[in-house]
Amino acid sequence: MDMFDLKHQTAVISGAARGLGLAFAETLASAGCNIAVLDILPQPSSALHELGSQHNVKVKYYSIDITVRDHVVSTLSKIVQDFGRVDININAAGVVSDESFLTTSDKNLQRTFAINVNGFFLVAQACANVMVEQYKSQHGDVPAKDATTGSIVFIASIATYIASTAQQISCYTASKAAIKGLVKPVAMELSRYGIRVNSLSPGYTMTDMMRGLQTEQPDLVKQFEKETLFGRIALPQELKGAILWLCSSKASGWYTGQDLLLDGGATSWKHPAVLN
Ligand SMILES: NC(=O)c1ccc[n+]([C@@H]2O[C@H](COP(=O)([O-])OP(=O)(O)OC[C@H]3O[C@@H](n4cnc5c(N)ncnc54)[C@H](O)[C@@H]3O)[C@@H](O)[C@H]2O)c1
């Protein structure tokens, strides 16, 4: 038995036009999983569509704003028509703005929570409803003894574990803490349908989001590099093993209601950088 075989499964991934979401789509496609991507960009990176022929899987891109419930619900119906089912949901869209707590604007508060919290909530809720219907059509009302129906993963952040002097992101951090707060109660509610719910907290990782921050604050990445035990920040591919494990019910079937932190040791020591 290949514990990481995802053939005939479908993953709905938000934020996979680029960045970590795209890396997650690559990983799941390489395991044989069909991929439906929700992202606000009009077009994804060309690498996304290449996954279809590279791995002989179906890949479809849906350009939507995940903060609008009607769009999310109608897109999920379309995905069910296009793919037939939903087995995995990774929530990897996200925004961050550097603003001090004392001057954080309403605009930042509303946008950050709309995308990082409400958007994740709406997409996961719509995916879970599809997964629950799939479970009921097979098992009726009998509660599941094993977690085989589906896996939902919220991308949280190292920011909820430790504050970095390099950034002022209380609004972003609170949004990620809110999403971590969803994990245990939703894992509890969905367990009877065989659905697992976890979050993954990446440390500092070089993506378009990080490149954008670096343009605004040129010393940011240098500071982050000093904060990990290996003197560098992560590459998106270094999160691939963890996401594949979280999404593969044969591999991580007993893991639910948890947060998995992948931070290159950044939260494991007192940084010499801040002691200087
Ligand atoms: N890069 C890091 O160091 C890091 C660290 C910890 C956590 N994270 C989290 O990982 C996730 C991915 O981050 P990334 O670095 O790949 O960022 P990214 O900016 O490269 O990608 C985020 C994607 O989300 C999409 N998006 C934004 N608003 C949207 C909306 N309203 N509807 C649909 N899609 C929308 C963007 O278009 C983009 O494609 C985010 O949740 C981020 O907070 C990133």
Notes on the structure:
- With 276 residues, the protein is α/β, with parallel strands linked by helices.
- It has a single domain (10-263), classed as NAD(P)-binding Rossmann-like Domain (Rossmann fold, 3-Layer(aba) Sandwich).
- The protein has helices spanning 19-30, 46-55, 69-83, 106-139, 170-190, 208-216, 220-227, 240-247, 249-252, 272-275; strands spanning 10-14, 34-39, 59-63, 88-91, 150-155, 195-202, 259-262.
- Strands 3-2-1-4-5-6-7 form a 7-stranded parallel sheet, sandwiched between helices.
- Helix 1 runs parallel beside helix 2, helix 1 packs across helix 8 and helix 4 packs parallel to helix 5 (170-190).
- The mean pLDDT is 95.
- Nicotinamide-adenine-dinucleotide (NAD) is lined by residues 14-15, 17-21, 38-41, 65-67, 92-96, 115, 119, 155, 157-158, 202, 204-205, 207-210.
CATH superfamily: NAD(P)-binding Rossmann-like Domain
Order of helices and strands: EHEHEHEHEHEHHHHEH
The CATH topology turns out to be Rossmann fold
Structural category is alpha/beta
InterPro entries: NAD(P)-bd_dom_sf, Sc_DH/Rdtase_CS, SDR_fam
Organism: Exophiala bonariae
GO molecular function: oxidoreductase activity, acting on NAD(P)H, oxygen as acceptor; oxidoreductase activity, acting on the CH-OH group of donors, NAD or NADP as acceptor
Family: Belongs to the short-chain dehydrogenases/reductases (SDR) family.
